[in-house]
Amino acid sequence: MERIKNKIKKALENVIIGSKNIVKLGYIKKINFCKNSKKFIIDIILPNPTLHFRDKIINYIYDTIKNNIEENICIKINIIKFDVNKKKSIKYILAIASGKGGVGKSTIASNISVILSNIGYKVGLLDADIYGPSIPTMFGINSSFISISSNNGLINPICKYGIKIISIGFFSKYGKAIVWRGPMASKALIQFINEINWGNLDFLIIDLPPGTGDIHLSILQEISLTGAIIVSTSQKVAIDDVIRTIEMFKIKSIYVPIIGIIENMSFFIPTNEKENKTKYFLFGKDGVKNISKKMNIFFLGEIPILKKIQIFSDLGIPAVMKDVEVKNTFIKIAKNIINNIIN
Ligand code: ADP
Known about the structure:
The protein is of the alpha/beta class. The chain is built from ten helices and 13 strands. The strands form three sheets. It has an eight-stranded mixed sheet, with helices on both faces. Strands 3-4-5 form a three-stranded mixed sheet, covered by helices on one side. α3 (105-119) crosses α10 and α5 (182-194) runs parallel beside α6. It binds adenosine-5'-diphosphate. Adenosine-5'-diphosphate is lined by residues 98, 101-107, 134, 264-265, 303, 305-306, 309-310, 313. The site of adenosine-5'-diphosphate has 17 residues, from α3 and α9.
């Protein structure tokens, strides 16, 4: 039995996550033989509680054992607990992604961050959109005096409305284009995660640049994300692009679980038609819902076009802080996100 157990352990070294194998990563706690069931029981600890990750690892282990051990053995995988980034100070890292620019990705990243913070979570927000960092504007951060922590030498994030914020925009002059080559931008963004004085966070929300590209690939390979949240509008051009983004997260070497998709700018109700609630689907109807069904991605919720979202956004105040209708819309979405990650 001991010989087979060692063989199993050796075989499990072929299950690679990121650049390390799961034995080295400490996922394997115990391998026992159960005399009653005649099965080898592999007790594992996972760092990521999402269903997608769990299924992927389990299938990966079964396949690896089948392909590496000649003996006809039966195994059972037993998840004993989820050790969510215990060693690290950030519990959940969520990327907000879109296919196209201008669909409301940063607006959603900002408002979701505020809602999570209102619920009582410790939240950090990393604006990684090098093409158009808009988080400073959305949070009304005009001057970004960057300080260094005297305790650990790390860059302090700027705290606004209870959220710790770092934007790539803090490191460029206002109105000046950020013309960094892909590798330079990726390197800077990875440093933003590892070398910022985030302290203990429940959630780090990353506002990714739109689309797919080198920068996405390197960030996603480097950082262990809990999951991605996709934002789109329903018109065809946005849907075509968002499919590419969804496919990117499914690439084996990246492999990021998709928590769900949000439809933004779903419909518009003119003020004079509020009574009978006539909806105008300016960007198409049900495009995001259909793609969520087709690609088996959880539909997290819809956000109508509301002038107040844009107005508060431009004033530097996430609209959820000022308006009950917007707040309730985002609470629903945030609860769906939390349920999909934690429960
Ligand atoms: P992205 O990050 O995808 O480029 P932004 O979040 O910057 O998009 O949003 C683009 C513009 O649309 C902003 O001016 C924002 O205020 C506005 N906007 C986003 N969502 C809505 C909405 N649901 N209703 C009204 N305006 C919105």
